[in-house]
Design a protein that fits this description.
The protein is an alpha+beta fold and 397 residues long. The chain contains 11 helices and 8 strands.
Length: 397
């Protein structure tokens, strides 16, 4: 006999009961997080036994709020955004039961950090043109290639990796998706120093890396479909995160405007109001997107949220420098670091302006996202693709 999923009241009672047995102030943080996962109060919409209770996704914010108000430890999502926002839903959708039970719990608790091995120097924005090769060797695959712009590779335990397993078929059909052990022999991580002076990203070289077939996600040759699930979740994670009114960059600039009246001009006032309205429209659109997610899976609409996020972040950080004048040209620290998170609001104006330049590249370039919106949301005619039926090995390299 099946049991109905818990409603809001039942979830509230479960949270109260959990907190009465696990005092956040007296319980070791990792022990607390593991127990929360085992109680089904991590991702409440995930299946029973995998951190959830098969509850409606819309109830997750209320559960998170109850834990936050109780002073419960977090799983530091700022350090493991790729794992929580991209790897986890992909493992859930395509992983075997063994893979789900092996990877999801330490992922959610933050014990194991994840990175994403997708982009390549020779593929650009065309993921399906990737050339990293995986060749079958009994129960293993031998992987050789290079990935680039990999966030958190310097701290990651696991990576979601897409490879070329069949060069004799068109590029979208010859890809296979794996979970890669970042500590395996042959995995080399090198920092990529950015315009900010920091090395938040990395390039990763894979030389004869052996990956067991049991770490394959999805069927052989079905890597494009698996990757699409990852990418749709990535764009929602980047552009569709919940934010309060005047959250993020617009809040930083609005506070500067209020605190420094001597900086104001009529033209800057007009620019600020326009950005404020656009940001609020994007925030409300993101709320509607999250409501759609509560009853289904992320779709191409997430591309619009990510596109708007990149555009607004860049224009708003630029306005902040205009407001500050000469002071905005100063840069506080060019020290080479390999940070664990990106936080615009707690950094300097110069950092915000420079770092925002990457927003229109990471998580899918703005040009690619416009194509997705045009074709898959608006239903406009597709872009002409002359390589659609050409085997990958015959494509110009």
């Amino acid at each position: 006999m099946s049991t109905a999923p818990p409603d809001a009241d039942e979830l509230g009672r479960r949270v109260d009961a959990f907190l009465s047995e696990h005092d956040p102030a007296a319980t070791e943080p990792l022990e607390f997080l593991r127990a929360r996962y085992d109680a089904g109060l991590a991702w409440v919409h995930y299946p029973d036994g995998l951190g959830g209770l098969d509850a409606p996704r819309a109830l997750q914010p209320a559960v998170d709020r109850r834990f936050r108000e109780a002073g419960a430890p977090t799983n530091q999502p700022e350090r493991n955004g790729i794992g929580l926002g991209m790897a986890a839903p992909t493992v859930l959708a395509f992983g075997t039961e063994e893979q789900k039970r092996r990877f999801l719990r330490p992922l959610w608790t933050g014990e194991e950090i994840w990175c994403q091995l997708f982009s390549e120097p020779g593929a650009g924005s065309d993921l399906a043109a990737l050339g990293t090769r995986a060749v079958r060797d009994g129960d293993h695959w031998i992987v050789n290639g290079q990935k680039v712009w990999t966030s958190m590779a310097h701290e990651a335990r696991w990576a979601i990796l897409v490879t070329r397993t069949d060069p004799d078929v068109p590029k979208h059909r010859g890809m296979t998706y794996f979970v890669c052990d970042m500590t395996a022999p042959g995995v080399e991580v090198r920092p990529l120093r950015q315009i900010t002076g920091e090395a938040e990203f990395n390039e990763v070289f894979l030389t004869d890396v052996r990956i067991p077939d049991e770490h394959r996600l999805g069927e052989i040759g079905d890597g494009w479909r698996v990757s699409t699930t990852t990418l749709m979740n990535e764009r929602v994670a980047i552009g569709g995160a919940a934010a309060p009114r005047e959250g993020g960059m617009i809040g930083v600039v609005a506070r500067l405007w209020r605190d420094r009246p001597e900086l104001r001009t009529a033209g800057l006032h007009d620019a600020l109001l326009r950005l404020w309205v656009e940001t609020e429209a994007a925030r409300l659109t993101g709320e509607r997107l999250r409501q759609q997610l509560a009853v289904g899976k992320p779709g191409p609409e997430g591309s619009a949220a990510k596109l708007a996020f990149a555009d607004l972040n860049q224009r708003t950080s630029g306005l902040e420098l205009e407001l500050l004048g000469d002071d905005g040209l100063r840069y506080d620290d060019w020290t080479m670091r390999r940070p664990s998170e990106v936080d615009f609001t707690r950094r300097s104006p110069g950092y915000r302006y420079l770092r925002a330049k990457g927003n229109s590249i990471e998580g899918g370039t703005s040009e690619i996202l416009r194509n997705i919106i045009a074709e898959r949301v608006l239903g406009l005619p597709g872009e002409i693709r002359v390589d659609k039926d050409v085997p990958w090995k015959d494509l110009p390299k």
